[in-house]
Each structure stands twice: as structure tokens, then as C-alpha cells.
Design brief:
Elements (H helix, E strand, L loop, with lengths): L10 H22 L4 E5 L7 H4 L2 H4 L19 H8 L3 H7 L7 E5 L11 E9 L2 E10 L2 E7 L5 E6 L1
Length: 160
């Protein structure tokens, strides 16, 4: 007799799958729903297309290349730690993101990452033909977001 054991999904895996499904299915529909708003986002930086194809550019931080004076002032490795803090800044903002483009963002609270009253926030960044979804949820100490944020950069965060 053969016994086939199939692993049961953990509750955390089910939550993550549910959130991903919500992002892909619910965010665009929710952004079109009654009560949604639309804003225009104008970014003032221009990145040449050839720079975006260079992997060296992906691992930089064009917006903040040098750490501010108040970032670990007594640490001898502060510059090194600054780069490891967000090593793919340019990639998430300018390669897969649209932070260097003018675009529209529609949703319940399009200018915010999280709903100011707590709970769900859905939005869609609209750039030419592309529709880039965003979903976030915040309640008490739990916060989550996935998608293209209010500045056009891609992000993922999960805190509890």
C-alpha cells in the first residue's frame, strides 16, 4: 500500500496567496469603483533608456547616492551600509518602475500608500497603455503593500 502525503499549506502561505490574488484581480476593479479618485503625478527626473539596460545602474541609488549626515554618523562603514539598505533602488524606481515618467494614478487614496483610516487601499498607475496595480492593507501593527506606489516605484512590504 502506497501512502501519498501532500504537504498542507501553512496559514502564512494562504494569506500571501490570497493577497496576491487580491492584487491581481481586485485592485483594478476597485480603482474603477465608485468613490475612486485620480491624480496626475509629474516626476522631474529623466533617465536615458540606455542607462536602464545597464545592470550596473540597477544597483545604484540615483536619488540619494550619499548617505545623509544623520545616518549612522559614528559608524565607519556608514556608506557601505547605506548602499546595502536599498541596493536595488534604481531598479525598482526607474527600470521596472515609472518614477521618471508622468503618469496618472487612480484609486481610493491615490496619493497615499496606506488608507489614512486603516484597512485596504487599492490603486492603479496608468502610463500610456500600461496599468500597474497596487494594493495595501494596514490594521494595528500589521501592514502590507505590493505593487507600484504613489511615486511610480515598485515595492513590497510586510510588517507585523
Amino acid at each position: 500500500m502506497n501512502i501519498l502525503l501532500q504537504p498542507k499549506p501553512r496559514p502564512g502561505q494562504l494569506v500571501l496567496l490570497g493577497l496576491l490574488a487580491g492584487l491581481l484581480l481586485a485592485a483594478p476593479a476597485a480603482a474603477r469603483a465608485a468613490g475612486s479618485h485620480e491624480i496626475s503625478v509629474t516626476n522631474h527626473i529623466t533617465i536615458p533608456a540606455h542607462a536602464k539596460w545597464n545592470p550596473k545602474f540597477w544597483f545604484g541609488n540615483l536619488d540619494d547616492p550619499v548617505p545623509p549626515a544623520d545616518y549612522r554618523p559614528a559608524d565607519h562603514n556608514r556608506v557601505h551600509k547605506w548602499y546595502f539598505r536599498n541596493p536595488t533602488h534604481n531598479f525598482t524606481f526607474y527600470v521596472i518602475g515609472i518614477a521618471d515618467k508622468k503618469f496618472r494614478r487612480a484609486g481610493h487614496h491615490p496619493a497615499d500608500v496606506f488608507n489614512p483610516h486603516g484597512g485596504w487601499n487599492y490603486a492603479v498607475c496608468k502610463y500610456k497603455w500600461a496599468r500597474l496595480p497596487f494594493v495595501s492593507y494596514q490594521r494595528h501593527k500589521f501592514s502590507f503593500y505590493l505593487g507600484w506606489r504613489e511615486r511610480g516605484n515598485f515595492g513590497l512590504k510586510l510588517n507585523w
